Amino acid sequence: MIKKLNFASIPTRDQDRALAFWTETMGFKVATDQPMGPNQRWIELTIPGAQTAIVLFTPEGHEDRIGTFFNGSFGCDDVDYSYEQLVKRGVEFTGPPEKQPWGTFARFRDPDGNTFVLSSR
After folding, report:
1. What would the pLDDT profile of 76-97 be if each residue is shown by its tens digit?
2. Is there a domain that residue 98 lies in?
3. Contact status, residue 42 vs residue 49, Cβ threshold 8 Å
4. Most CB contacts within 10 A, which of 8, 10, 36, 112?
5. How far apart (Å, rounded) are the C-alpha atoms in residues 16 and 18?
6. What ranges in the chain are assigned the alpha helix state H?
C-alpha cells in the first residue's frame, strides 16, 4: 500500500526566484526541471537524505495559494542550530524557535511569502 509522500507542491509566482531560494539558500537539489505547459516548468527538488521531495509549481486556478501557510512541517534534528544557520543564509523567520511539550519549532518564509514550519520532535 502507500509507503511515502512523493512530493508536496509549493505555489510560486516566480519559479526562477523560488528555485534559487530552495537550492542555493535551503540546500535542496534539482531532480527535474522541465516544461509544463506554455508558461510554467515542473521543478522537482529533493531534500538531501529524505524520500519526500517538493515541487515548485502552481496549478492553473490556484494562484490564490501563493503567499499562504504551508500545512506541513520540515523536520530537523536541532531547530535552534538549523535556525541559526538559515538566518545566516538570509532566510526570513517570523520569530525565534519556540519550545513546546511535543518539540521545538520555528516559522520561516520563502520569497513568495509562503510560511513554513521547521520542527523537531
Report:
1. 999 999 999 999 999 999 999 9
2. yes
3. no
4. 10
5. 5
6. 15-20, 79-88
